[in-house]
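Exercise 7. Given the encoded structure of a 117-residue chain, write a plausible sequence.
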């Protein structure tokens, strides 16, 4: 499938990206400026690697890009836990983001099992 926009894992990644931008929009920049940059890059990386991987012809190449997307999801999860530990963001917003990230990780792992490593 070349139309990556139809993939549920890409759609979920885009929703996560929106959640990250919305979350950081409300935070004082002095507290979370560096974390904001890392988090937004990680979120964008999830969707971007899914899209790029989908353009690849071989299953092995697709699998590699999904691995990178999964790594970015775990990176974003860690950064979200930092927000929680520092109490820089409302707990309910971070919890919702963490739940969405967890779902995305599971979806990516399931997708990867269908590809030849």
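Solution.
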């Amino acid at each position: 499938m070349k139309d990556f926009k139809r993939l549920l894992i890409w759609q979920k990644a885009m929703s996560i990206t929106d959640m990250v931008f919305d979350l950081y929009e409300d935070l004082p920049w002095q507290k979370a400026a560096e974390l904001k940059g890392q988090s937004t890059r990680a979120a964008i990386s999830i969707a971007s690697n899914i899209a790029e991987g989908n353009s690849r012809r071989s299953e092995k190449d697709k699998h590699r890009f999904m691995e990178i997307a999964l790594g970015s999801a775990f990176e974003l999860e860690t950064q979200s836990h930092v927000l929680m530990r520092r109490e820089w963001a409302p707990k309910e917003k971070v919890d919702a983001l963490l739940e969405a990230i967890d779902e995305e990780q599971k979806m990516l792992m399931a997708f990867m099992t269908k590809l030849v490593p």
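Remark. The chain has a mean pLDDT of 93. Students should compare their own answers with the one above.
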